[in-house]
Amino acid sequence: MSTEPMCLACGMQYAAAREDCPICEDERQYVPQAGQQWTNLAELRESGTYTPRIEEQGPGITGVGSNPGFAIGQRALLVRARSGNFLWDCAAYLDDALVRRVCDLGGITGIAISHPHYYTTMVEWARAFDVPVYLHEADQQWIGRPDPAVKLWSGATLDVADDLRLINLGVHFAGGTVLHWPDGEEGRGALLSGDIVQVIPDRTHVGFMYSYPNLIPERPQVVRRAAELLAGYRFEAIYGAWWDAIVRTGGFEVVQRSAKRYLAHVTDEA
């Protein structure tokens, strides 16, 4: 069983023991008041605390995670695309039972992750399913456990299949990425956004932040570029990072309206 150290606060797995967690020390995350603490997958599995959680989130999209959630608590999304199952983002907890549940759904052909907060145990997932993990090269410095399965990509877009496209928006992190699935929502399109485009309680809008826990707004020029990039795509739904954090209808209009509102608040743009 895996004994590589994992940050108890953010879930990042590192190749070797260390005293600090760069992810938590960055201003987009935080070191808990109790201080830096460590665990590993073997300890988490042996604790008996966590069990697999698999739930439908939308047409052809299945949530994959644990109950309770570990560390930040995000769930991954299994996209049942025409080209094959593809895993978006990464849940920090993984055990044999969760691997079997995903295999029962048809396994996965690859993994892509929106930003470093969700890199966590990506190498464990890649090895369990013998698939590549696609990360934007702008966030290479945050990789805690290098591995040949990690495939860095560059530029604004990458087609990981003929029906799945990664789009680098640069929100939250320089490599902040979303996944566009044009066949999603029965052909109306789906955007899987992690918290690069944050699904908020008011489902008529989305949010854009540089640091969510520390309430640092994203730079206007970054949000403006993100909206311009997404203007070239159509999508009905937006799937965020959390269970049931979903904009079900009008996703394209929600993003454009939200970017306009954001820029009006942080600049002189109306």
Automatic annotation (TrEMBL):
Segments traversing the membrane: none
Highest rank taxon of the organism: Bacteria
Gene3D superfamilies: Ribonuclease Z/Hydroxyacylglutathione hydrolase-like
Ranges for domain Metallo-beta-lactamase: 73-242
Coiled-coil residue spans: none
Entry protein name: Beta-lactamase
Taxonomic lineage of the native organism: Bacteria, Bacillati, Actinomycetota, Actinomycetes, Pseudonocardiales
